Fold:
Amino acid sequence: MIDWGAVARIVHVLAVVVWIGGVWMVTTILLPAIAAKAPAEFAQGFREIEQRFAPQARIAVILVLLSGLYMAQHYALWPRFGQSRFWWMHLMVFVWALFALLLFVLEPLVLRRKFHQEAAFASRPAPAAMLRLHRVMLGLALLAIAAAVGGREGLF
Structure:
């Protein structure tokens, strides 16, 4: 018999690894590497990264949501959201919601257009602001992962 809860946990962890591992790579390697380039080159480099990574990140974020909801139902975890000692679960949901808002709403509807306008008309695009945003999001994600593992293991 298949333990679907275990399957959901595997999907959840793999999706988080793909999602946050990709954010790590973009934040610590790719963006810094292209940030020093001329505005047009930076814009082109960013578009190339975005076109490849954003769809992968969106799929991973959806898998995290679906597997997380399944686990909450399967393991009857919903009451934990009413208990402050499970603050780390709230943090996971908060970080997921921030990334989902960024990936599914702000990036395609606002940030992409604003970035491309700045890249086209400004003497220098805003790679520093973009890198700061990525660093903040990465930091929150790593904090949520550490808190979730620590919470799951009874450290909190």
Summary: Residues 4-152 form one domain. The chain has one domain: 4-152. The helical segments are 4-35, 39-74, 87-121, 127-152. Residues 88 and 152 are 9 Å apart (CA to CA).
